[in-house]
Amino acid sequence: MSNYTFCQVSLQENISIIEKNYNNLKKFYKKIKIYIICPDHQIKKFKESLNLDDIEIINEDSVISFHEFKNIYLNLTSTLKYKNEFDQRLKWYYQQILKICYAIKYINTNKKNIIIWDADTIILKKIKFFDNGYSIKYGNFFEFHKQYFKTNKSILKIQPNYFISFLNQFISITQNELEFFLKKIRAEKISSNKIPSYISYLILKNIFDTHVVYNGSMFSEYELLGQSSYLLNKKKQIPIITLRFGLNGILSDSQISLVRLLNFKHITYEHCHQNKNSIGMLSRNQTWPSLIKIIIKSLIKHYLRLIKHNLNYMINRYE
Length: 319
Prior knowledge:
Blueprint: E1 3-9, H1 15-28, E2 31-38, H2 43-49, E3 55-59, H3 66-76, H4 83-87, H5 90-110, E4 114-117, E5 121-123, E6 130-131, E7 134-135, E8 138-139, H6 146-156, E9 170-173, H7 175-184, H8 195-210, H9 221-232, E10 238-239, E11 241-243, H10 253-261, E12 264-268, H11 288-316
Parallel strand pairs: 1-2, 1-4, 2-3, 8-10, 11-12
Antiparallel strand pairs: 4-9, 5-12, 6-7
């Protein structure tokens, strides 16, 4: 039985995307429940727009308030050389903390698995998330940001010899994987009400201790949770193809049909990024020439690297 629970952290600008993703999820899975975490002042808008029995709106303050998160940050950055730059992306890091902390809270409270899913991402094909008590380890060849893994190693104290990116815009977590993660970060005995502040402190401190020079992206919740689960169960990662980079508008039904046929699992509309393709993309159509270029490039990269991935896994499987 395909009963799945999802959580998302979002602002109201993603409501139209969340609605499209919800409709697709309902086609693929028998029963779903979606928890959407948003700021207090946007709760009314979310509830008006997504007034559905299987969607629940959560006040982000009930997980950890931005005020509390910022205070933890300020206490760690009195001598940080790149504090001004980091300030500009503080809310980006905050939303990652919200995802991790809500997932921990949900699993500990309900004793059920959960899937974190990006609010700007729409599922295109059915994905199997769990198998025999573990999450299925998906990966991709379109991300590999070394700064993320430096932070991960500082937090987890170990890394696999070989892995590909877990940054797939979603991550599934089981109860046993959460227990393992909490042990790895030395949080298994911390009371539930203190977990959010502990997680915030842990991640921020390891970022600042690890990175002397500023890099806008120095942590990924998907890479951290993915690597932790992989350390517990090193079953071969399954590479998937998704649409994300280079899009300049909303795909038409015929374009969606094409990318589904080519086995693209989901599409991400990064409409909040400050570049010419992203700004205003939700109000215009995706151009065909650009889409074809993206598809060809993605398929070539995926299938060429798939050969290398299979060889590397075989070499490193007995690490």
